Amino acid sequence: MNPPEKPATQTGERRRHQRRASQSKVRLTVESREIEGQVENISRSGLLFFSEGDLRVSVQIEENGATSKRTGRLVRAQRMRGESFGWAVEFD
Prior knowledge:
With about 90 residues, the protein is mainly beta. The chain is built from no helices and six strands. Strand 2 (about 35-45) and strand 3 form a beta hairpin.
């Protein structure tokens, strides 16, 4: 007798809001403060650590001739394409 099949895991969209493409200019400002945490792993080229606090930021977005300012927290920073980095900010 074969064990019952498990239903396929469904991975749905986790984003709270739909994205749209944009070629807008943005300026990110990081609030200067110290962040303390616990190192998860370390090597000669870098380390991964976890902290309890948010890295607070503000962004100025220039889009369609209008400029807006928002605050939020940095939720991801990752080297994406060669020497370019991707920065993900969650707005307040």
